[in-house]
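Hey, I was hoping to borrow your eyes for a little while. I'm sending you its amino acid sequence along with the C-alpha cells. Take your time with it, there's no hurry, and the full record follows here.
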Amino acid sequence: MRKHIYPICLLGFLLATLSMNSCVRYPELVSFAPINDSIPPEAINNFVDLKIAPQDLLSIKVSSFPPEAAAPFNLDQGIGNNAGFIQNTQNIGLFTGYLVDNEGNIDFPTLGKLNIAGRTTREIKKIISEKIQPYLKDPVINVRILNFKVTVSGEVNRPGTVNVPSQRITILEAIGLSGDFTNYANRANVLVTREEEGVRKHARLNLQSSDIFQSPYFYLQQNDYVYVEPIKARVATVADPFSRALSFGSAALSLVTIIVTLVTR
C-alpha cells in the first residue's frame, strides 16, 4: 500500500500549492511603506478649509450682550414640541439650520438673502459680521456645517456613511470609523470621488505609500465617496467556487494522507 501513498502526497502538495495562489500575501496587508524616522517633521500644507456648496446645511448662531438684542438675527428655536423627534444633528438642522439653495443662497433673518456658496465658514462669519455691525456691537458669530458626511464602501468591515461632527477628517480616520480594512482590501488603489464647484473628480490613492500624507485628497470634504476595491484573492473566493472547493479539498486530502501514513507504518 506504500506505493499508493506517494501519488497521494504529491497530489496533496499540488492542491496545496494551487490553493496558496488565492491566499493574501503579507505585503498586501501593509498600509504604509517604512517611514524614515530621521526625516524632519513635515508641515501640513494640504489641508484646506471646507467650502460651502448648494444643499449644505449650516448652523449659524449670533450672540451679543444683552442676549435679547441678537434674537432678530437667529432662527426661531421652536424645538420644544419636537424634542422626541430630534435625535441627531441632522434632525436639529431641520428646525434650526440654513439650507443652501441651488443658487448658493440662504435667507438670513433681518439681513435677507446672502450668497455664500464657494465660501468657507470663516468667510461667512466675516460677511455676516460686517452686515450686522449697524445693528449689534461686538457680535459673536458661530458657523458650522451640519451635514458634513462621507461614505465609505467596498472592502471595509462596516461600510456606510460616516457623520463628521468636526470640520476636518482624513481618509485614514474615515476608514478607521468604518471598521478598518478587511484582509482583502487593495490598499494600493483606493478611489475617492468628489464633487467640487459643479465638477465630479476622481482620484486613486495608494495607502501603501507615505506620499498619501501630502495628497490633496488626504483630507476629505463633505459628501466625498471612498471606495476600497478588493484584491484578486478576494475575487477568486467570491466568483470562483472551484477555488473554495480546492482549498477544502486540499485540506481534506492532506488529512487523509496523514491518516494513511500512520496506518501503514
